[in-house]
Amino acid sequence: xxxxxxxxxxxxxxxxxxxxxxxxxxxxxxxxxxxxxxxxxxxxxxxxxxxxxxxxxxxxxxxxxxxxxxxxxxxxxxxxxxxxxxxxxxxxxxxxxxxxxxxxxxxxxxxxxxxxxxxxxxxxxxxxxxxxxxxxxxxxxxxxxxxxxxxxxxxxxxxxxxxxxxxxxxxxxxxxxxxxxxxxxxxxxxxxxxxxxxxxxxxxxxxxxxxxxxxxxxxxxxxxxxxxxxxxxxxxxxxxxxxxxxxxxxxxxxxxxxxxxxxxxxxxxxxxxxxxxxxxxxxxxxxxxxxxxxxxxxxxxxxxxxxxxxxxxxxxxxxxxxxxxxxxxxxxxxxxxxxxxxxxxxxxxxxxxxxxxxxxxxxxxxxxxxxxx
Length: 373
Description:
InterPro entries: AMP-dep_synth/lig_dom. This is AMP-binding enzyme. Residues 28-298 form the AMP-dependent synthetase/ligase domain. One of its GO terms (molecular function) is CoA-ligase activity. The protein is of the alpha/beta class. The chain has a domain at 16-159: Rossmann fold (3-Layer(aba) Sandwich). It has helices spanning 35-52, 65-69, 83-93, 105-111, 150-154, 188-193, 215-228, 240-250, 259-267, 291-294, 321-327, 334-342, 369-372, and strands at 20-24, 32-34, 59-61, 73-75, 95-101, 122-125, 141-142, 168-173, 183-187, 206-208, 232-234, 254-257, 281-284, 316-317.
């Protein structure tokens, strides 16, 4: 039997810099970004923003990596936001710049004066890659005016946070479940660590139909997948039938999705028209999936909730220490101390554990402890 060496690594068929990481699902052959393209474009935005005026810690309403490279903080808003909602977020976050798409440009222009955001710090973002359809008649600049020259951007060194564990990189606003929206702080360390959980990831394909202003879309498609080398096919909007067609055509392996899409996958007759056998993993979040699924993580007929701990979670609520205190617990070692005081030493799991199909027993029913050990 041949045994493969641990030191053997797969040889890529192309330079890693030329791997496609963002692909337009409607025009995949002509409209895409490689990792190298993505880095250079982000550096051009970062250098342009620095020259336009922000300093480390400024809050900026959308493009993502360029803002972080410039030393700013990203905050994203839903295109469905009204004037009052956007004005609240601009004021609460203290945003220094805003980049708005065509559908929300009028809202941004009307909301900005309410919070003192100068008109010359609002930029229009159009789906056109060339930027020829500029600003829909508004007297503001197009986002491409921010781009620094390529030659200068290639030499640009982006801002490194002094302490990534405590330096905020993103503000995501909550969905008003428990009151007015609160800014949720995510650190550089949290986003930088997220991709490291699967160092030896195999080549996969995923598709993005979730909004990039949302934490779920950012974490998967901007923070994680470029780092791990997973190509992402980008849809301009979520259309279920087009999604199924993309999964079929591009052999998508991983779906990062929301409960409404999972429900449609389970019940829609459209699914039978497409080959979805390539899908190996479905990651569902952003909202409860279903009552019966939620009940599986709680005792029968008892209400409950899950508490999570880890370096990729939130830093806290923006300028809201009271809400942070109510929603989070910072007591390192508390669970270990609790276990030490209540569990006998022989009950401790040492060296991990193994799942088995069944408990080995002799015909009389006695457990074979030696086999288990």
